[in-house]
Amino acid sequence: MEFGELNEKIRAHALTINALKSEISKVIVGQEEMVEALIMGMIGEGHILLEGVPGLAKTTAVKAFADSTDLDFQRIQFTPDLLPADIIGSRIFNMTEHNFETKKGVIFSNVILADEINRAPAKVQSALLEAMQERQVTIGGDTYPLPDPFIVLATQNPLEQEGTYPLPEAQVDRFMFKVLIDYPTQDEELKIIEKFERRELTQKLNKILNKAEIKEWQEIAKQIYTDDRIKKYVISIVSETRQPKERTIAQLIDVGASPRASIFLILAGRIRAFIEGRTFVTPEDIKEVAYPVLRHRIIPSFEAEAEKISTDKIISELLNRVEVP
Question: What value does the mean pLDDT take over residues 121-137?
Answer without folding.
Answer: 82
